[in-house]
Amino acid sequence: MTDWSVLHHAYGTAEDIPALLDRAATDDQEAWSELWSALCHQGSSYTASYAALPHLAEIGSLDAVLLAVGIVADGPDEVRTEHAAAIATLGTRANELLPVTDDGYEYLLEGVLVLEGLLHQADAMAWGVAEEEYEIECPECDTPMFILPAEGISKTVEAERPLRPADPTTLDGVGRRVCETAAAHGQDKVARVLGYFFGQATCPACDAELTVSDELL
Q: Which of 26, 53, 89, 145 has the fewest CB atoms lying closer than 10 Å?
């Protein structure tokens, strides 16, 4: 039995969390808003946040999975050990929800990777999907350049060059997996951006060839 009175969230002791979790389980969106604010305030998590993970796994909704992802992303390694069973359940549920999720698909795909412990990869990929922009420096001449998937170009202040998306069948590991997963789910924008993320670019300043993901991961 969790003693919520000795745990804390963003606003103090956590005695209010069980009631909020009960309300959230009925799809009360106000309760979800309050839970986000208390347990993952501006991306920060707390002792009450970690204690809530098994309850979020039991609820298993999209809201529950995304909140858990935010908590796990900010938590120390010990949280993954202590709550390994809940995190595994949440990961399974995230994969189940992917094919039926449209709005916010990229965040759920990111969440799948976070729950698997691939936090850095998840963050780098998701940024470009949401913003349709990556900023890197050319590894040869150090010129700042933008990778713009929506336009299919790499760009500096003075020039631009076309991007060349990766063929997912030539990739391996997480790259192939996320590209093929997004395509299989009909998420064309996500698949397109990820193709450029793992694809090739030319520096408009010095014409050096580079793999975008090598500069971001």
A: 26
- Picking from 99, 117, 135, the residue at the C-terminal end of a domain is 117
pLDDT tens across the length of the chain (217 residues): 799 999 999 999 999 999 999 999 999 999 999 999 999 999 999 999 999 999 999 999 999 999 999 999 998 999 999 999 999 999 999 999 999 999 889 999 999 999 999 988 898 888 888 888 899 999 999 999 999 998 999 999 899 999 999 999 999 999 999 999 999 999 999 999 999 999 999 999 999 999 999 999 8
User: Could you list the residue range(s) of the whole structural domain that residue 74 is in?
Assistant: 4-117
Task: Give dist(CA 74, CA 209) in Å, integer.
Answer: 35
What total of structural domains would you count in the chain? 2
Same domain, 37 and 101: yes
* pTM for the structure as a whole: 0.89
